[in-house]
């Protein structure tokens, strides 16, 4: 399927035919996303195009994530706007303004061996770089949290608006894409709640095994400094309504599996289902009589 050859579309078609000439499925996917993007209210579409076709794969996947989100929101029936000097998307739900900042972090700091295929005829083992991946997820979240603070200070967003950070970790997973971390819960959970590895508890003289998650309140960065993993149970991040995570990079049917962690401390919350009925959504509720303790459950 070829698109109408306006200059921007022609640039994308030419780039896809050159850079991704052996990936027909990806070419068709990007063209379908672009057709949806042309239907949206975007003030600076040229900037997106320039980073799609500049031979920088990290920027390419960042812009693909924006196109994916735009297509998803369009197909949900949201009327989006993308201002030149603001967050990536704005739309309304029952009168509530919802802003979305999208980011696809680069694989900086992740061992290169994680992305290498085994040599022909040889087997190999892989050690999943969970901590390194988690640091990239957290870095992406905090950078966009700070960006939203800048937008608020500049009057672009208002106190009554909902602000959502959306992170795609497709660049972190190589050919082992997984939406879950060591907790076996979505990355969104591990970034904003102190949920650690899945663990089993055994009892002497009994056949009972109790499964649960260890608590993990921080992860050390490359300098040995602690990075907090509980921003959604502190007032510091009350300006962020929710965190969305995703690892999808190419979905021929244009579906988009999303995982959403809602912020129980948010000044403004988003309704369940805002990002589609198929999204997996999690909420934390403060436990009665236990200040600072929350109960985390999947609600959709």
Blueprint (SSEs and pairs):
Layout: H1 7-19, H2 24-37, E1 41-42, H3 45-52, H4 57-75, E2 81-82, E3 89-93, E4 96-103, H5 130-153, E5 162-168, H6 170-173, H7 187-192, E6 195-202, E7 209-215, E8 218-220, E9 226-228, E10 242-246, E11 259-262, E12 280-286, E13 294-298
Q: Could you explain how this protein is built, in words?
A:
Helices cover 29% and strands 22% of the residues. It is an alpha/beta fold. It has two domains: 1-83, no CATH class; 86-298, no CATH class. Strand 6 (195-202) and strand 7 form a beta hairpin. The longest helix is centred in the middle third of the chain and has 24 residues, at 130-153.
The rounded distance between the terminal residues' Cα atoms is 36 Å
Q: How many distinct helices?
A: 7
The sequence of SSEs as H and E is HHEHHEEEHEHHEEEEEEEE
Which stretches are low in confidence, meaning pLDDT under 50 for 5 or more residues running?
Answer: none
**Largest beta-sheet characterization:** 7 strands, mixed
Shape: globular
Class from helix and strand fractions: alpha/beta
Whole-angstrom Rg: 20 Å
Percent of residues in beta strands: 15-25%
Overall pLDDT, averaged? 92
* β-strand number: 13
How many separate structural domains?
2
Summed up:
The chain is built from 7 helices and 13 strands. It is of the alpha/beta class and 300 residues long. The relative contact order is 0.12.
């Amino acid at each position: 399927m070829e698109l109408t050859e306006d200059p921007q579309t022609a640039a994308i078609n030419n780039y896809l035919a050159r850079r991704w000439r052996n990936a027909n499925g990806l070419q068709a996917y990007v063209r379908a996303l672009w057709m949806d993007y042309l239907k949206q209210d975007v003030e600076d579409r040229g900037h997106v195009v320039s980073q799609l076709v500049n031979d920088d794969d990290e920027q390419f996947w960042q812009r693909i994530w924006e196109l994916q989100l735009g297509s998803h929101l369009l197909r949900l029936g949201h009327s989006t706007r993308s201002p030149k000097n603001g967050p990536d998307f704005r739309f309304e739900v029952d009168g509530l303004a919802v802003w979305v900042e999208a980011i696809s972090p680069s694989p900086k700091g992740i061992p290169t061996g994680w992305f290498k295929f085994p040599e022909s005829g040889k087997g190999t083992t892989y050690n999943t770089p969970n901590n390194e991946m988690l640091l990239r997820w957290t870095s992406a979240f905090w950078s966009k949290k700070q960006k939203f603070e800048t937008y608020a200070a500049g009057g672009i967003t208002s106190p009554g608006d909902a602000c959502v950070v959306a992170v795609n970790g497709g660049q972190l997973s190589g050919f082992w894409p997984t939406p879950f971390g060591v907790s076996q819960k979505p990355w969104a959970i591990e970034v904003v709640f102190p949920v650690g590895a899945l663990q089993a508890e055994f009892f002497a003289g009994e056949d009972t095994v109790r499964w649960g998650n260890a608590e993990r309140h921080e992860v050390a960065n490359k300098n040995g400094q602690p990075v907090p993993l509980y921003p959604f149970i502190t007032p510091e991040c009350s300006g962020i309504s929710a965190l969305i995570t995703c690892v999808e990079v190419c979905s021929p049917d244009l579906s988009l599996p999303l995982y959403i962690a809602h912020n129980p401390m948010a000044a403004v919350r988003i309704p369940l289902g805002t990002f589609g009925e198929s999204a997996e959504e999690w909420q934390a509720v403060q436990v009665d009589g236990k200040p600072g303790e929350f109960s985390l459950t999947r609600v959709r």
